[in-house]
C-alpha cells in the first residue's frame, strides 16, 4: 500500500505510543516523524 508502507517504528513509553528512531529507539518529534515518512 503506497499510503501505509510500515516505515514508522513505535514503542509504548510511559503509557504513550510514540514514534521512535529505528536506529536509537529514542522518541522523535512529530516533525521528524513526518519528514521521515515523506522523505
User: What's the pLDDT, averaged over the residues?
Assistant: 87
Low-confidence stretches: none
Separate helix tally? 1
| Alpha-carbon distance between the two ends | 17 Å
| Assembly status | single chain
Domain module count:
1
| Biggest sheet strand line-up | 1-2
Query: What share of the residues does DSSP label as strand, in percent?
Result: 25-35%
Radius of gyration: 10 Å
The total count of strands amounts to 2
Helix content: 10-25%
Summing up helix and strand content along with how strands pair, one would put the structural category as alpha+beta
State the order of secondary-structure elements, H for helix, E for strand.
EEH
Largest sheet: 2 strands, antiparallel
In one word, what is the shape? globular
What does this structure look like?
- The chain is of the alpha+beta class.
- It has one domain (9-38).
- The protein has one helix and two strands; from the N terminus they run E-E-H.
- The protein has one helix at residues 30-38; strands at 9-13, 16-20.
- The radius of gyration is 10 Å and the shape is globular.
- The two termini are 17 Å apart.
- The model has no long low-confidence stretch (mean pLDDT 87).
Amino acid at each position: 500500500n503506497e499510503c501505509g508502507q510500515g516505515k514508522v517504528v513505535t514503542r509504548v513509553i510511559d503509557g504513550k505510543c510514540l514514534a521512535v528512531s529505528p536506529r536509537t529507539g529514542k522518541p522523535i518529534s512529530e516533525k521528524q516523524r513526518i519528514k521521515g515518512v515523506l522523505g
